[in-house]
């Protein structure tokens, strides 16, 4: 028998409805603020122990029998009856397809009559529009939803982000509640794209006035991220599976997780383009030089005339039917024409004679990273000739080699503030942002500044390529020492890293990182240098010196939340004390040093009063 068909002895859907053989189960929807239950989603089950027990099989059979809408209405009635019998508080969320909602009536009176017959105060009912099927007649569906809401019932959009639950529906139906599909919530603590997708939903929810419910929460780490993003409600196995006897309170384990003292480390994407930086069309627009172009049928005299009239024009594009086919460099052209008799000999000849028929062409929409590849190409003529900028293949204007180098450099400098291009770890701006979040949430943490001893002599001896390998190794060691859900790892620049520990065993983690790096770094040395115990080189003053192996030093600052601390410190003060701790750690045989934020701030204050020289600190902006 085919798997999609029910066994012949199973009851028909009409019989189940008539015999009231459907049973209800309830899953709590939790308010993160107080750890209380906002309400429950009512779900239906068929007769226990039968093929139709699962809702999937039940509704599939109803579809085959043409009784889908009747089953939905019977399911809602069963949920309301069981809910009332249990005496549960809060809202009851009921699932409906668009077709089932459409049968509730097009007027407020019809909708109120149906809802009133359910035996529950209308204002406690939330109707969830499921994603099962598309809405064929949206213009006719909107007044039905409006009529339902006029009765006092609320309207929710279920499983948002999948199937038919789209932005279009959100805009047109303006739901009171939007339930984010579990796909976006599962592993959101690890997935930067899911995080950004939910963040976008948050922005729109703020604009539309809808409340968000995060569905499918099964892991504590995902819950902490969702909580710290500012989403107020959640549902999932972490709070409880659907069951016939609805729980009246959140479990102790769930309450403990909701009240966890640490804040989430938001997942960070590797950034190839930074918000607000010139990329794509913005970069092209900055480089664009508005310049006339000549048709390929033009003569060299026409080129000379334009260059004489427009003295600032560095080059001239040649086009055919609006598309660039060549580029004429001003200096090269004028140098040729300065030769005896060249104007007389070549003036009336076609302009293509002295043109570069393979110019560099940059499309307006090209990303900065694509533009950057030109800098490493073998063809460097763009430095002198410049290049042509097009819009969908049509000539737009010109750019210079200087403007290209400047645009790429500016974007890469800006990008490094967000993510280090070597290790892809967060840069100074995300570091400062996370410190600010820790301080604002009054969380105790340890800011650990990591530096490598004798790294410069190693770089001088083995070269930057090998030095980069050491930096990547140190980043891997530090990442291994961190709990990604609690500890934030950033790369300030060069051989400087910063860890913002919230893990209770942070000291053991820091010590293990030092030990792992110090032993692992030996493999980057040649055999003779390992045997000698180090390398010969020059110190910063140019004097011959012998340097031991590259080792790791970690200076830690204990930051207590105000008012436990004498003052509330910002990222700059914390960074300055961390830099002080790092300097002291480099003098310790263990490579480790711990200082309290108040003590470190007092030391720096004394230093500032005693010396006109500014304190040495890590720049985070």
TrEMBL record:
<feature type="domain" description="GGDEF">
    <location>
        <begin position="443"/>
        <end position="599"/>
    </location>
</feature>
<dbReference type="InterPro" id="IPR050706">
    <property type="entry name" value="Cyclic-di-GMP_PDE-like"/>
</dbReference>
<dbReference type="InterPro" id="IPR029787">
    <property type="entry name" value="Nucleotide_cyclase"/>
</dbReference>
<dbReference type="InterPro" id="IPR043128">
    <property type="entry name" value="Rev_trsase/Diguanyl_cyclase"/>
</dbReference>
<dbReference type="Pfam" id="PF00990">
    <property type="entry name" value="GGDEF"/>
</dbReference>
<feature type="domain" description="EAL">
    <location>
        <begin position="6"/>
        <end position="256"/>
    </location>
</feature>
<dbReference type="Pfam" id="PF00563">
    <property type="entry name" value="EAL"/>
</dbReference>
<dbReference type="InterPro" id="IPR001633">
    <property type="entry name" value="EAL_dom"/>
</dbReference>
<protein>
    <submittedName>
        <fullName>Diguanylate cyclase</fullName>
    </submittedName>
</protein>
<dbReference type="InterPro" id="IPR035919">
    <property type="entry name" value="EAL_sf"/>
</dbReference>
<dbReference type="InterPro" id="IPR046342">
    <property type="entry name" value="CBS_dom_sf"/>
</dbReference>
<dbReference type="GO" id="GO:0071111">
    <property type="term" value="F:cyclic-guanylate-specific phosphodiesterase activity"/>
</dbReference>
<dbReference type="InterPro" id="IPR000160">
    <property type="entry name" value="GGDEF_dom"/>
</dbReference>
């Amino acid at each position: 028998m085919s798997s999609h068909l029910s066994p012949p002895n199973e009851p028909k859907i009409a019989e189940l409805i008539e015999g009231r053989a459907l049973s209800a189960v309830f899953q709590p929807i939790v308010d993160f603020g107080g750890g209380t239950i906002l309400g429950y989603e009512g779900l239906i089950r068929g007769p226990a122990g039968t093929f139709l027990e699962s809702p999937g099989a039940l509704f599939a059979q109803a579809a085959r029998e043409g009784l889908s809408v009747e089953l939905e209405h019977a399911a809602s009635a069963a949920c309301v009856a069981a809910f009332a019998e249990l005496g549960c508080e809060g809202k009851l969320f009921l699932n409906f397809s668009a077709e089932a909602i459409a049968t509730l009536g097009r007027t407020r009176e019809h909708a109120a009559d149906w809802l009133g017959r359910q035996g529950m105060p209308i204002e406690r009912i939330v109707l969830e529009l499921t994603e099962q099927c598309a809405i064929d007649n949206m213009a006719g569906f909107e007044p039905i939803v409006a009529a339902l809401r006029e009765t006092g019932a609320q309207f929710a959009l279920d499983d948002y982000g999948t199937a038919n639950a789209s932005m279009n529906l959100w805009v047109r139906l303006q739901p009171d509640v939007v339930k984010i599909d579990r796909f976006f919530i599962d592993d959101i603590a690890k997935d930067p794209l899911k995080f950004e997708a939910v963040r976008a939903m948050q922005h729109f929810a703020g604009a539309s006035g809808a409340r968000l419910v995060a569905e499918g929460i099964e892991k504590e780490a995902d819950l902490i991220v969702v909580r710290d993003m500012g989403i107020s409600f959640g549902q999932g196995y972490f709070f409880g599976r659907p069951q016939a006897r609805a729980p009246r309170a959140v479990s102790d384990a769930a309450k403990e997780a909701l009240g966890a003292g640490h804040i989430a480390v938001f997942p960070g994407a590797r950034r190839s383009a930074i918000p607000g930086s010139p990329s794509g069309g913005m970069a092209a627009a900055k480089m664009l030089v508005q310049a006339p172009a000549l048709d390929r049928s033009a003569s060299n005299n026409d080129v000379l005339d334009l260059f004489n009239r427009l003295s600032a024009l560095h080059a001239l594009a040649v086009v055919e039917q609006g598309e660039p086919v060549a580029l004429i460099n001003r200096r090269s052209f004028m140098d040729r024409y300065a030769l005896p008799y060249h104007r007389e000999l070549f003036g009336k000849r076609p302009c293509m004679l002295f043109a570069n028929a393979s110019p560099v062409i940059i499309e307006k929409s090209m990303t900065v990273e694509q533009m950057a590849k030109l800098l490493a190409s073998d063809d460097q003529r763009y430095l002198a000739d410049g290049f042509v900028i097009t819009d969908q293949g049509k000539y737009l204007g010109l750019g210079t080699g200087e403007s290209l180098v400047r645009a790429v450099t500016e974007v890469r400098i800006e990008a490094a503030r967000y993510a280090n291009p070597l290790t892809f770890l967060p840069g100074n701006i995300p570091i400062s942002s996370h410190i600010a979040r820790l301080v604002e949430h009054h969380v105790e943490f340890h800011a650990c500044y990591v530096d490598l001893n004798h790294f410069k002599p190693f770089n001088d001896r083995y070269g930057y390529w090998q030095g980069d390998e050491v930096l990547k190794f140190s980043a891997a060691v530090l990442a291994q020492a961190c709990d990604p859900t609690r500890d934030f790892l950033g790369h300030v620049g060069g051989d400087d890293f910063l860890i913002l520990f919230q893990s209770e065993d942070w000291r053991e983690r820091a010590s293990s990182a030092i030990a792992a790096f110090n032993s692992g770094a030996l493999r980057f040395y040649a055999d003779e240098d390992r045997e000698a115990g180090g390398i010969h080189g020059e110190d910063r003053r140019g004097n011959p010196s012998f340097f031991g192996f590259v080792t790791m030093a970690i200076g830690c600052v204990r930051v207590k939340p105000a008012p436990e601390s004498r003052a509330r410190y910002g990222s700059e003060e914390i960074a300055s004390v961390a830099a002080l701790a790092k300097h002291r750690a480099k003098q310790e045989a263990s490579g480790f040093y711990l200082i309290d934020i108040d003590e470190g701030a007092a030391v720096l204050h004394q230093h500032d009063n005693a010396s006109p020289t500014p304190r040495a600190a890590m720049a985070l902006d």
